[in-house]
């Protein structure tokens, strides 16, 4: 039971039980003091949380100089509309690529990533950081099996610069930059280990070179440097006839990654640079039965086979990613993914391939967007936790111009491997832009690249240049006549689902054959290096021009060159200035060296 009682204060205001009566001024000071303390505590919590997150999101490392692992995944002839995360926008997710999609969601997606129109030039640009016309590798031409020529050995390659700062370097899969002499092979161009094919394409099960009527030979090797004599290469023919190529490459890469992980001291073993240069989905289209069953929902047979080749690529990427994750290396590794050129929607004989670049015009071997604009992304450690989360529905995209040569200085920056060069790079460093994006701030400044030279090729009389939104094409943009917008998406007769219409792949086979023949004769003229009548200068090329505003005409259907002559002429002059006195004589890739084949196996012969 509570008792009522009163308390009386004395004349000094001190109550009988020793307590002071309430003082309004003191109360205000106390509240203010508590307020400041709370603010300080909140600030402290924010700072501590930020620091803790920074530590958690930063890859674990020791020492003063941290260099991340770098994994490059190169797809071969992958169409702009051939991946799940990309083609959902256009055809309802017909092709499923869950492993690549996961990485893409955790990455910065490059929406304007440009390559060369063909395999060898794109790979050369990636490895050198320079436009291929600087060293004679421009155009829709590739290094043939049996060719004496390839990427000039005077060019400094990205893996060589990374080796200099302690990276171990690995290449799995396609090389396609020449192998006539050992000095041209991967082991002599900056790679510690090579497991793959010297040439550009081979059958997926028998591993025989695949270049139409040209001689066929076995092309699957394993190379390392001789530990006793560093000038010699330990060269082994990989006898694994019957196993799907993607599986072979992935299994060997997984084995190497597990070996790397066994090194307990991360600083002792150093970082790695690994290139997974898959041939999927390049021809020949030989899908695994496992993958065909997984794509049974794709109604069109050609599109289903293509989807199956891409499923295999996706599976390989998933295995590599899972290995990194299992070995606690995923958050210590930068991952870059891109295709070397656009998808090949039509074969040289006019048959359908099943790839799709929709809504872009053209295909592989052309200077239209479908030949040179490819899917690409970069996953930087910590990005998925710091910004969007692993399954964000709002991916981070970069809309600025980016050329495949830009990977060279960008990755060098991340690897702290900058160096001086005797020649100027065409590639532009985007590391700062990407760092801003992964912190959720967006680029602090304008995009570093304002112009892309898509190609300059006096053999096929074709060239193209892009600025912020305009694209100028000079001469013949279609080396092999794949110049249509291939609208591959149509509803079936019952209006259910999405199918591919084969008629959109059709071309005039006879006319195509004539053009190929003419081009072959023109290329052969370059074998005679003393022929001074051949033009290797931009001024000698055709001045037929097309101009497109890609911001409103992504499919390049409306040529505005006659309406905006100032823009057209300014871009032409800019291209002339960039190429002035820097164009090398185009390489002729002859393929008639019988000594390159030894009992049915391709070999280094010079």
Structural write-up:
The chain is of the alpha/beta class and 606 residues long. It is 29% helix and 15% strand. The chain contains 15 helices and 20 strands. The strands form five sheets. It has a ten-stranded mixed β-sheet with strand order 7-6-5-4-8-1-9-10-2-11, with helices on both faces. Strands 13-14-15-18 form a four-stranded antiparallel β-sheet, covered by helices on one side. Strand 16 and strand 17 form a beta hairpin. Helix 6 packs parallel to helix 9. 46% of the residues are buried.
Beta-strand residue percentage: 5-15%
Average pLDDT confidence is 81
Shape: globular
Major β-sheet strand ordering: 7-6-5-4-8-1-9-10-2-11
The end-to-end span amounts to 110 Å
Total strand segments: 20
Count of alpha and pi helical runs: 15
* Spans of at least 5 consecutive residues with low confidence: 1-21, 52-63, 384-393, 487-519
Largest sheet: 10 strands, mixed
**Secondary-structure content class:** alpha/beta
- What does the radius of gyration come to? 29 Å
